[in-house]
Amino acid sequence: MPIDYRIDQDRRLVLANAQGVLVESDVFGYQREVWSRPEVEGYDELIDMSLVERIELPAVQRVEDLAKLSAAMDPPRHYSKFAIVATTNVSFGLGMMFKAYRELDPRSTKKVAVFRTMAEAMTWLGRPQ
């Protein structure tokens, strides 16, 4: 899976790095694997897309499906943040689409923002580097 992650228990943060060619099974697999774990409930999330060479999602509909799945997995009483670092126009655009779909879902308890740099994302998360 070209999405590696680690769970920082002390900072209550999931840090993920995507790289190479990102396909549908990678993003859906990451979502299900990480966010079905009860110990990360209410944690903030950061995904760094800066090493992604290409994104192969079959349709825009799948971005909406991913947003719906993500919102459905949110704990209803725990609000958190999700920062996406997207250095290319394609990853930034897809990140903004994901953010919009997530905000439209009433089950979503995670605030999403898309950034061009890691420093901006970490500051927004309240965890300056």
Distance between the termini: 27 Å
Number of helices: 4
Strand order of the largest sheet: 1-2-3-4-5
Note the beta-strand portion: 25-35%
- pLDDT below 50 for ≥5 consecutive residues: which ranges? none
Average of pLDDT: 93
Kindly give the count of domains.
1
Rg (C-alpha, Å) = 13 Å
Q: Indicate the CATH topology.
A: Transcription Regulator spoIIAA
The profile of the biggest β sheet is: 5 strands, mixed
CATH architectural grouping: 2-Layer Sandwich
Name the features.
129 residues, alpha/beta, Transcription Regulator spoIIAA
Helix-strand layout with pairing:
Blueprint: E1 3-8, E2 13-23, H1 24-35, E3 44-56, H2 60-73, E4 80-85, H3 89-104, E5 110-115, H4 118-124
Describe, in plain words, how this protein is organized in 3D.
With 129 residues, this protein is an alpha/beta fold. The protein has a single domain, classed as STAS domain (Transcription Regulator spoIIAA, 2-Layer Sandwich). 38% of the residues lie in helices and 33% in strands. It is built from 4 helices and 5 strands; from the N terminus they run ββαβαβαβα. It has helices spanning 24-35, 60-73, 89-104, 118-124; strands at 3-8, 13-23, 44-56, 80-85, 110-115. A 5-stranded mixed beta sheet has the order 1-2-3-4-5. α3 links the parallel β4 and β5 (110-115). α1 runs parallel beside α2 and α2 (60-73) crosses α3 (89-104). The longest helix is centred in the C-terminal third of the chain and has 16 residues, at 89-104. The mean pLDDT is 93.
